[in-house]
Design goal:
Layout (H helix, E strand, L loop, with lengths): L14 E10 L14 E15 L3 E28 L3 E10 L6 E10 L5 E32 L5 E14 L11 E14 L4 E13 L10 E13 L1
Antiparallel strand pairs: 1-2, 1-10, 2-3, 3-4, 3-6, 5-6, 6-7, 7-8, 8-9, 9-10
């Protein structure tokens, strides 16, 4: 009698729930955003629903809810190095976020009249940089997303993921005139390790973008490289 090997079982769930944390320690102009040196720290839950499963891919709907989404902005530091009529340094730590922390230095030279009819010339340099930062509390939701797990018959599965949604913060980010309501989207890749058929751990890297899409006066946008770790379970 011919012998046939049993088909490998699928490591895939119909309904999946997840608990995750995500962090990014910096931002830069990766694709669309111009605001630099922004940090993100997020805590949330996720839900996935199986849409298509075969021996090549496990295609899933994915949605995320983030009740805690923290964003950190660097604050401006102003320094005036005066050389005339007196020599001195004057510094001010501003409460407004800076767009970039690259120091910008400009020389000045101007003359003002005095009450006795004479004039005084002021010369020196002004430098704007960063000093300190502030965290802003917010919440976010990504109701539209998809995840593609490859090699679903193995415990170790590479995957691709992408999500879209919004973020609301208690004050404007990343600048004063940017508004507190922003749209978000992200996409990335990672590895999912199944401990059993119902439980797994995911580690992934995402490109994450925040933008108000022109609904406020300023829209510099934020690009972050986000590291996310998820504990997933379900049936």
């Amino acid at each position: 009698w011919a012998q046939t090997s049993p088909e490998k079982p699928y490591y895939a769930r119909t309904n999946t729930f997840g608990v995750f944390t995500a962090y990014s320690g910096d931002s830069s102009h990766m694709l669309l955003g111009d605001a630099e040196n922004r940090k993100l720290l997020e805590f949330g839950v996720s839900y996935s629903r199986k849409l298509l499963l075969n021996h090549v891919v496990n295609w899933q709907y994915n949605g995320e809810l983030l009740p805690v989404a923290l964003e950190s902005d660097p604050l401006e530091h102003y320094a005036n190095q005066q050389t005339s009529p007196t020599v001195g340094t004057y510094t001010v730590n501003e409460s407004s976020p800076a767009l970039t922390c690259a120091p910008v230095t400009a020389a000045y030279d101007f003359t003002l009249p005095n009450q006795n009819g004479t004039t005084t010339t002021y010369t020196g340099t002004e430098t704007i940089s960063c000093s300190g930062r502030r965290w802003t509390v917010g919440e976010a939701m990504s109701p539209v997303g998809f995840q593609w797990n490859f090699r679903p018959q193995h415990k170790t599965q590479p995957f691709l993921i992408g999500n879209g949604g919004y973020m609301y913060s208690t004050r404007a980010i990343p600048m004063v005139g940017s508004g507190s309501f922003n749209f978000t989207f992200d996409f990335g890749a990672g590895i999912e390790l199944y401990r059993s058929k119902t439980r797994s751990v995911r580690a992934e890297y995402r490109y994450h973008h925040i933008s108000n899409h022109g609904t406020a006066n300023d829209n510099p946008g934020i690009d972050n490289g986000l590291i996310q770790v998820t504990y997933a379970f379900g049936r």
